[in-house]
Every structure is written in structure tokens, then in C-alpha cells.
# Entry
Amino acid sequence: MPKIDNIKIKMINLKSRYKMKIKKADIFVIIFLLVFSLASSLIISRITSKDRGNILVIKQDSKVIKKVPLTKDQKFKIEYKGHYNIVKIKDGKAFVSDADCSDKICTHMSPISDVGETIICLPHRLYLEVYSENPKDSRKDKIDKVIR
# Structure
């Protein structure tokens, strides 16, 4: 029994000896890192912000069937071989509110409003994409990288 008590005492001594203490400098470093990471993420989000589109192009079977401005709230029905999709535009965002396709994936997609965003309904061969009226605003016309 005395050996076990001896070991316990040594363990307690080791714990108290190597107990970490938080210093003012540690707190300063932690706060600095938090502020730096928050500032970096804000700067990066500003740099990579997407361009807002103002035209919704609707294609079916790779043919443009309608071009609609995103500036006006509206609702319309698109029919295809006895089936339908209901597209709504509200607050500058387009989405499929209802469809009679079997999987209804298109109705669960997030509303689109930025250039290049799409909603696709495969069973009805429907393709919605946001464009910008001004080609200078379009990301497709901007240079991505220059390689030398």
C-alpha cells in the first residue's frame, strides 16, 4: 500500500508543477487572432462577391423560350408535354415554386439572383439561368487569370 500512495503523491506533484497558467500575453494573442481572422473573412467575402443579374433566361430543350426581367415580381407557368413548372420572381430572385415532376428537386433549390446561377429541372428539360443585361457586369466576360 505505501507504494501506491507514493505514486499518487508524485502524480499530484507533477500535475501542480505543470499546471498551465493563462497570461495576459496569451489573451492578447487569442484576441488578435480572432480579430484578424474575422477581418480576413470579411475582406475575402467582399472581394469575391458575385454580380447581381437582372435577366432570367429560360431554356427548354436547349432553346430560349423566354427572357424575363428580375426587377418585376411575377409568376408564370411553363408547360412541357402535358407537364408544368411554375416559376416565380420575387424581390429580384427567381425560383421554381411548383412542378409536377416526380422528384421535385427544382422546387427545393435556392432562389437565384446572381449572374451564372442556375436552376435545372431534368424531367421537363427546363433550364433557368441569370444573366446581366450589361455585358461588362457579367463574370463570363471578366479575365480570370493570366498565365505567362
